[in-house]
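Appendix B, record 7
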Amino acid sequence: MVFNSFPFVVFFIIVFLVYWYPLKEKTNLQNFFLLVASWFFYGYANWKILPLLIVSILIFYFLGKAISKHKTDKTGSWLTTLGVVLGIGALVYFKYFNFFIDSFAALFNSLGLQTNLHTFNIILPLGISFYTFRLLSYIIDIHRGKGEATNDFVAFATYISFFPCLLSGPIDRPKFIAQLQKTRTFSYAFAVDGSRQILWGLFKKMVIADNIATYVDAVWGNMDARGGSTFVLAAILYLFQIYADFSGYSDMAIGVGKLLCFKIADNFKAPLFALNIADYWRRWHITLTQWLTDYVFMPLNIKFRDLGNGGIILAILINFVLIGMWHGADWTFALFGLYHGLLYIPLILSGAFFKKTKLQTNKLGLPVLKDFGRIILTMSLVVVGLILFRADNMGQAIDYTQHILQTSLFSMPWLYASNWYPTVFISIILLIVLEWLTRKEEHPLTLFAGKPIALQVVVYYALVIAIYFLHPQAEMTFIYFQF
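Structure tokens (predicted):
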């Protein structure tokens, strides 16, 4: 059940009406209703995966209580370790087990050793990467003394299962439970802003991402019939596709949360204007980056501190390989993470890693030439890495790169349907302009808040019409559902 589908519209209208009318200001009943609705939402895709979510919630709820009781002694440490092993173990089994079997079989075969290793038909539970990180942060924070175990099982279970964030984030921290325990009063202004953010998210997903996908998928699906310039264009367009797709989902999730009077963590902050790779990751998939920084990079950095810059580099490389592997079970993702980690080395050695540089603008409100060049360089490096991210395997990534390096690199790219170009390139320009003007705001449509009603009506209806008429016929799911 995706946000841009009719079943979700029906589902959410029912949730919204029940939540705000018969259950108005009845916090415990609202939470219980949200929990049931979230489990229905999750089970709608495949009821077979729902028991794993429920069992995980039960285990970590009682683990949290036990850790809280023993957090000053070794028992608390052992229980926390047990929880981390269970959480990571579930991820490894469901997400990486077949990958490791294939890798070992390939290694043994390359050595001339015959094996009977074979993969299993393991179903990857939707959203497991996201809700596992919420479970882990809950017990780790209790062990570190940064939070207390809650006695409110329904609030805890709702935090883990909250349907807007369940399948593709953002990855909220345990402090979200406090929002669930407060009485919530409907806010018209908050709901209007949430509706704007949903509309912007729908536009990004259905007009920008889905239209780009038709071209990118065609190029990746038939490499032999394309020239080098076509592969460059497709690689650049994929940056906008994945950004519009994933940030569009996050916008919709945050907007749905606002309609229910919740503040969900921001997940993107104008990453297209990043000045270097560190700045990019501070702006891209923020909740994942911050999670791994707090629970992986910082502990490693402390452990390796005697090694100086070498220790920081080692911690960064491990952190980013994990970021890559979090996305999927293939060597392409591991190399994607390693690639980004290696890009940090010049920043660390020069000292720029420790500084947050501020983007400078000229009298016209545009980036100064130096910063414009840094933005272009950063985005070019990101585009190269995304070839690994998009490829199904290493062979395909190498094949794609080889196709770029043809003499046809300097020819005209493959021409797609004539009506495709205005839709895609005008919408990309609109995305860049609006996000530049509102780069310090939560979403671009805040630009029209407080403006004359007539202008707001024109803008919002124009986006609705664009979504209805310019969305491609083929239904496309969200890219991050696979993670």
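Remarks on this record: The chain has a mean pLDDT of 92. The CA atoms of residues 332 and 407 lie 26 Å apart.
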